[in-house]
């Protein structure tokens, strides 16, 4: 009984920590939207990443609900929170969009995302029993998560090319690492392949980002310090 209680506490602690670190990630676009609200324009910013994040949150939220996976409530809470944030960001993007064409594009993509999620949810309920439902939604959520974790690879390429860490904020990379590590442990404790595999890849990605940051921020500072002063 004691070992079971310790196991339950460990699972909750890992999942709760993952929720906290994910909250920091969800707050990361706030400076961007402060700029958008101040300028009353979306400028050159793209709304697609927020739509894709919303779809990812919906799918992972569905995976964490009791009728799909038993005992994965902390997966549902973190993705429910994430979905609320993404909806807020998408709403602001829609309000401050520069043209009617952009608003129509956002609306069309949002409808497409919702229909895609509805198809996954409906198929999982009507075509599979409980065991196969968890596997089906688990595979879809795992693919979605891995795609989300892979998206910063382009930014890492920019850092390597330009030898400048300006577009890869330190705290964003750190939050990615800590959140992924927490949920990788959570998934490992639950013996849930669909949680620990994508988050394990997230740990590798976050650690690589921090390694690049450490290397290129030092190199960047050295370049700045060696630059001639202008009178």
Fold and architecture overview:
Helix content is 82%, strand content 0%. It is mostly helical. Helix 3 (48-64) runs antiparallel to helix 6 (130-150). The longest helix has 34 residues, at 193-226. It is globular, with a radius of gyration of 20 Å.
Determine the fraction of residues in helical runs and give it as a percent range.
Answer: over 70%
Number of helices: 9
- In the predicted model, the low-confidence regions spanning at least 5 consecutive residues are 225-231
End-to-end CA span: 74 Å
Structural class: mainly alpha
Number of strands: 0
C-alpha geometry:
globular
The overall pLDDT average reads 86
Could you spell the SSE succession in H and E letters?
HHHHHHHHH
Gyration radius (Cα, Å) is 20 Å
Query: Largest sheet, if any?
Result: none
**Beta strand %:** under 5%
Task: Itemize the secondary structure elements and their pairings.
Blueprint: H1 2-27, H2 30-39, H3 48-64, H4 73-95, H5 100-127, H6 130-150, H7 153-162, H8 170-189, H9 193-226
Summarize the structure.
With 231 residues, this protein is mainly alpha-helical. 82% of the residues lie in helices and 0% in strands. The longest helix is centred in the C-terminal third of the chain and has 34 residues, at 193-226.
Labels describing this entry:
disordered C terminus; globular; mainly alpha
């Amino acid at each position: 009984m004691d070992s079971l209680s310790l196991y339950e506490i460990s699972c909750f602690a890992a999942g709760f920590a993952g929720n906290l670190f994910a909250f920091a990630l969800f707050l990361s676009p706030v400076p961007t939207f402060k700029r958008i609200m101040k300028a009353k324009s979306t400028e050159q910013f793209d709304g697609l990443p927020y739509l894709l994040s919303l779809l990812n949150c919906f799918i992972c939220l569905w995976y964490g609900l009791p009728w799909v996976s038993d005992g994965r409530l902390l997966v549902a809470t973190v993705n429910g929170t994430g979905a609320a944030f993404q909806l807020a960001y998408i709403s602001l993007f829609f309000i401050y969009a520069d043209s009617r064409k952009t608003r129509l594009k956002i609306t069309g993509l949002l409808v497409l995302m919702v229909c895609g999620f509805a198809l996954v949810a409906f198929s999982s309920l009507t075509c599979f029993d409980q065991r196969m439902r968890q596997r089906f939604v688990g595979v879809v959520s795992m693919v979605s998560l891995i795609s989300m974790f892979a998206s910063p690879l382009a930014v890492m390429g920019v850092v390597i090319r330009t030898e400048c860490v300006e577009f890869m904020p330190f705290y964003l990379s750190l939050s990615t690492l800590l959140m992924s590590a927490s949920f990788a442990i959570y998934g490992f404790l639950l013996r849930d392949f669909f949680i620990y595999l994508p988050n394990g890849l997230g740990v590798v990605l976050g650690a690589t980002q921090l390694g690049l940051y450490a290397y290129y921020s030092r190199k960047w500072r050295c370049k700045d310090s060696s630059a001639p002063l202008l009178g």
